[in-house]
Fold these 2 entries.
Entry 1:
Amino acid sequence: MAKLGVNIDHVATVRQARGVAEPDPVTAAALAELAGADGITVHLREDRRHIQDRDVELLRRTVGTRLNLEMAATDEMVGIALKLLPDCVTLVPEKREELTTEGGLDVIRYRSSLKDPVELLRQGGITVSLFVDPDLEQIKAARRLGADYIEIHTGAYCEARDPGSRRIELEKIDNAVRAGRKLGLGVNAGHGLNYQNVREVVALGGIEEFNIGHSIVSRAVLVGMERAVREMAALVRGG
Ligand code: PXP
């Protein structure tokens, strides 16, 4: 049965819109865990647009499931991760001008700048996952770099507008899951998934954990965090 990692970045987005103390992503994480989340994910961005250092520090002390820190492979972020020791670090590409992460890491191109961060984090006892597009060569490169996991970028599937291209993108995810597992990698998936499109990806099988943020936080605004997480957890577990 697949697991659900709840990304709470956008609870912090609402807080930062006013520059006040609420809503607190730390409280949101506790509610998500009470509702059955298997893990909590936050992305500490270089520009600190949503999650703040204080959030990650408190989450490290309060999250009782697993804390997954998404971050760029910079010296600053590696230092923070080695100090706080999240259970998992997911390395993502990061551009200041983007609204959200726009694509997977180009592991082939940036191999040399990813090598040290991956090694340092793993030596620190942190599980390392690389966020990659569903592309066989990128997955092989992630394996060669020594990653423990890949997280497959599901954005292109989620954005496909017609059934034909949607099927093609789903097939790419399916092939990527199989390739990753065959290479001995753990396989997670995420980005753009919601209460409608997650079913088909769950049905592929082989994905250990889904990392889902925007759609859960959006639903939580209307129906509450616990119900939003419970409903997504049921879908991810194949309900
Ligand atoms: N996985 C990764 C690597 C991401 O960067 C994000 C967005 O922060 C997510 C999953 C969650 O995406 P969404 O908010 O679209 O569910």
Entry 2:
Amino acid sequence: MTVRVRFAPSPTGMFHVGGARTALQNWIFAKQHGGAFVLRIEDTDVSRNRPEWTEGILSALDWLGIRRGTYEGPYFQSSFAAEHRAAVEKLAAAGQAYFCDCTREAVQARTGDPHRGYDGHCRGRGLAQALGRALRFRAPDKGQTRVVDLIRGEPTFDNAKIEDFVIARGDGSALFLLANVVDDAAMGITHVLRSEEHLPNTPKQQLLWDALGHTPPIWGHLPVVVNEKRQKLSKRRDKVALESYRDEGYLPETMRNYLMLLGWAPSGDREIVPWSVIESEFRLEDVNPSPAFFDEKKLRAFNGEYIRALPVEEFMAACRPWLTGTDTIPAPPWRPEAFDPDSFAAVAPLAQSRVAVLSEIVASVDFLFLDEPVADEASWAKAMKEGAADLLDATIGAYQALPTWDAESLKTTMEQVGAAHGLKLGKAQAPVRVATTGRTVGLPLFESLAVLGRDRTLARLRAARARLG
Ligand code: GLU
């Protein structure tokens, strides 16, 4: 059997990290089996059918390393309308589906139970197709539907508990459950690997595969992704958009690696592993079916490690979008012409060992490119304690007189100034840091001042001294 898998996102305006995991696992599964990966955009909800949303899906996949042109598609569900209609007609003509005009209220009034589902009222009524009537699949009353799931064994469902579910509208247009099956069958899909959220749909869909005369696929329901409170990740509550991680400065390598660890781990006592290892070691059968915790803190730590592993030139190149701004990343706060590549290159190694996400580069280096970094009130108050004016005076005097302007001399001098004021280096340098960088924390101070240069350092120290009055 030639393996054919598909990733079938519905456009939603953002790319959910859970979807990214599903895409990657399908991608690897196809690759491992010498099979095909098919992309199908499930765009039949007209309100969600926007070209820019589809483009967002393609570029998110590109970013993850699933590059356009290297897979089949994208196909669009909307272009299979004729096949959907044919399936609707076939099922209706064969009596495997029937039209129904019951309202939800009427069903509830009969059953007295809002959770019970449809009671089969229209099964024998022989209603003709008409607008406002739904087409329901005649689910079997007896027996069981057993599905083969690579992650969950063979989940078995009692047919008696499957209601006669709606598969099409009165105008003959198919709904998700049917359209999804018709498309998978038309595309020769052999394995449907998707999120656990769809597991309740699976027995219904397998019945449709059978009713349409096709061999059902093998299924694989990947664990649902949850937050630290064990709640399913939600667009409203949690940061779920892959794009927001990208724009914050997560590397695609980090995301790919981390997403693969949702429910799975490579061999040995390690989690950060090259993609080639993941591609060869990953086994869908080894995925843990329990909900997978999306741990943002861990992801951040991973990203820091990935950043530190880059050659410094690559780190500098990776920072570029935050140093210039893009369509989706805000421009930095300095005048573009104020950016100096040499100064940036001089501090890049210091920043590389400290940032966890690339967007942090802006706050790390802005003191070099802003005309005058201005400390906010809180930082100012925190650093400019009693004695700060004297300390700044002494620092200005000593720094003016320095024969050489290098990190070592700047530090030794600061230590001496501090000692003369009864302060250790950490305390003594606080006013100097805020005066010269506008921040209470940042890159190692004396290396920073060495790059900033004598004139600018002294000008900022004098301005701070003047502000103190
Ligand atoms: N469009 C559906 C979704 O995004 C596809 C489900 C499936 O993979 O079968 O959830």
